[in-house]
Design goal:
two-stranded antiparallel ribbon; 50% helix; mainly alpha
Length: 119
């Protein structure tokens, strides 16, 4: 299994990266994406990277606080963008490009693949 690295110590499951891309692209609702990440993390008994805990927390908050769901959706989308930005801006780490021009992130440009060949 191929994994993207957020840093030298942290492995990110490519399925989670794909879910984050879908959140940013707007092809999955932010809560549904965060919930899918949560479920993916729960499938494995191994500890998961701390930077992914935010998706578990935001999905849980979304379930508990109906009045704040719109803001929580924005927070989830921002965290997904941040995760992808960290992965694509780390030298020597390649994550295929994603479409960041969706309604979730108006005015953003599609990122290049930073010279990566293939997925």
């Amino acid at each position: 299994m191929r994994v993207a690295r957020a840093d030298a110590e942290t492995l990110i499951d490519p399925e989670i990266v794909a879910i984050a891309r879908r959140i940013v692209a707007g092809s999955i609702a932010p809560y549904d994406g965060a919930r899918a990440i949560w479920e993916r993390l729960a499938e494995d008994d191994a500890p998961y990277p701390q930077e992914l805990a935010v998706f578990v927390g935001l999905a849980s908050e979304w379930q508990d606080h109906e009045r704040h769901r719109l803001a929580l959706d924005r927070d989830i989308a921002a965290e997904a963008r941040s995760l992808l930005d960290r992965l694509t801006s780390t030298p020597g780490r390649c994550v295929p490009p994603y479409d960041a021009t969706s309604s979730i992130s108006p005015g953003r440009q599609v990122r290049s693949n930073h010279g990566c060949s293939g997925p």
